[in-house]
Design a protein that fits this description.
single chain; alpha/beta; formyl-coa transferase, domain 3; 7-stranded mixed β-sheet; 4-stranded antiparallel β-sheet; 25 helices; about 40% helix
Length: about 600
Amino acid sequence: MTTSTSPAAATASISTAATAATIPPSPSPLPRYSLLATTRTIFDGLIADPAIPIPAAARAKAAVFDSLPILPCVFKECETVAALKGVEGAVAAAIAEDRYGADDAAVRNDAVSIDLQHATMFLFMAYLASVDGYTKLQPEVKKKLVDTDFYAAQSDPYRRMSANLYRTKDNKFFHIHGSLDASTTLEMIGLPSHIPGFTDYDAIISKIEGAVIRYTAAELEAMNAEHKQAGVTALPRDEFLATPHGALLAGLPIWESTSLESTTPPTAWPSTPSNTGQPRQILDGIKVLELCRIIAGPTIARILAEYGADVLKVTGPNLSDVPFFQVDGNMGKRTCTLDLKSPHGRAIFEKLVADADVIVDGYRTGAFARLGYPPSYFASVAKARGRGFVYVSENCFGFKGEWAHRPGWQQIADCVSGLAWAHGTSMGHNEPVIPPFPMSDYGTGCIGAVAALAALHDRATKGGSYWATTSLVQYDILLMNQGFYPNSLWHRIRDMHDPAVRELHYYDSVDRISATALQSCIKLRPDVFAEAFSTAGDELSDEEYNAKSRYMEKHAAPGFNGTIKVLKPVVHMTSAANAFKHASRPNGYDEPVWL
């Protein structure tokens, strides 16, 4: 088993231009491969796909792609997410044209551009964020955070490893997942829920695998179903696609949008001041109620905040969340706490709903329906007020098929879809290995944001209310549909990275895998990561720094008692603006009111 250290800080100064990565010379010529051309091909396929519900005006928009990133993954992650960001920009430009284009020719001809390096950084932006220079991987950052890890599922190393891949009795691989309270999963496999002082990484792996290996994969599947846990057998892609659920999802678009009601008229965009001297934002005045935690759902709302939406994140008083993810994931938002099981909390929530435009739901499928708030509730409110809603839901397994009810997370999606097996094999192992970073989370968040933008355009031009659904597995299917890098090229890319990346195995935690990959990326491309991990420019005011930096921006964040650095919005438009209105803050920081 391997060990790893925290990423070394890059020391280069703030860079306003990227340097292309260079693949070392080879004794034999490589097949010609172009990241930019592949990104363009993926984008053209998505923007023209009639199954994807985007405005006709968006299909006519162009996107320009630039730069060359390198990740230690055989998947076309950067090309796929850059293409998705291009679609996001195209739909955003269509909204800008509908909202502001009548009196502004520049908006009607707005150009969208995507930097591939920037888009790739979006896939692991939580790992680039910091508070007073402390990153997710540095224990010192905890003193800056509000502790929302109520059940120590993140902070206790033993309990943290209840979310990991282990070998089974029948020589398969099963990913148990204790979610945000590890007790049920650990007790399910016959282990104590807590072992105080048990922190040795290798010893923890041995103990938990020693318990898991007493069961077959089928037995673990049955146990997970009984205890409603988020575990899954790691499947090769062909086996997943051969299941009824895999076959069903493979035939669906990356998101679906269905009508909740069609009686409300087209909703005019909110009136906003003109001639302010500042670029206008396409979602200025749009109210978004976020009901999410962790990454994928909050990313949907974070992107909407980039375009100027007033986002209010609602969490429960006793619901755990990963503390550091709030540093980056809560950018542009205000946050509040409501108990939806109390009459007082429900009354406030329903008052917020009455004035909202978008609902983003990232909890387990049916959780809000069980509280009395299914999608049909929002349709009834829309009819009563005469103004439609956009309801966006994301989950792990999708909203159709026999596994739609199953709970899950990024690692679960990557295991069931075949992504983990493909990554492990590409690293030379006959075993699944979780890919680095929560890239499926962020990719799904981008898809959900595009779905919200497209539905808002429909609400404005056609009327009605819409329910858009997407999932982590649907992103994984899209990613693998693009194929892998040619072997000769992939082997060269893989060999450029630190050997420690190839030494990772199925039993290594997502934290170790991501830390090792990030350290390698920093060594390979210090120019790209300088802004995130260097102190250069920290003496500048926030405004001066943000004007000079290419990828990162910094803000005073009283909620974290320090200065935060986070990734800038990826989509660039020449006329309309996408920029955050608020610095990040912890969950539960604000009052539950609209501005």
